[in-house]
Amino acid sequence: MDAEQVTEKILADARAEADKIAREANKKERAEQGEYDRQLDEYKKQTSALAQKAGEEKRSHMLATARMEVAKEYLAEKRKILDEVFAAARAKLQSLADDEYRQMMTKLMVKAVETGDEEVIVDRNETRIDRSFIKQINRQLGPGYQGNLRLAEERRDLGGGFILRRGKIKNNVSIDVLVNQAREELEIELAKELFASER
To answer: Residue 147: helix, strand or coil by DSSP?
Structure first.
């Protein structure tokens, strides 16, 4: 074998080896490209799923926020209406005819009395709860009580109604307190309604 043949053989072997390496590289590249394509598809699916989930969460959050805002506005309107209703109720109670007012105060006082020897504190401008009114109440209290209520010298800004005081113990039955108690009960109902709408 001469040098030229040896050179041809080496070149042929080198070409064959180069072709083999190129085929393996192409095969490996196709396999890797297939794996990259599979990973890319998986990544796209995961990204799409995450984006959809994030979108649904954002939509759900936006809806919940919107519902809460509507509920707050609704509650604010109800409170505004309550303000008007209770202001009107307070004014109506204060402006009752004398007989109606005394009847109401009689029921409230007889119910509120605990011992029968309390002092009765009234509003600064009260004219309907006077000494003769207190005498009538004492007669109604009867034998079960001492029937010794007395009108206090002290007067306060009550807006109507009265406070029964015995020592340091006070039972406030003023119109403001009665109206505020009724309002608190209604506002508890409104709060329940508001929080029920969040669910």
So the answer is: coil
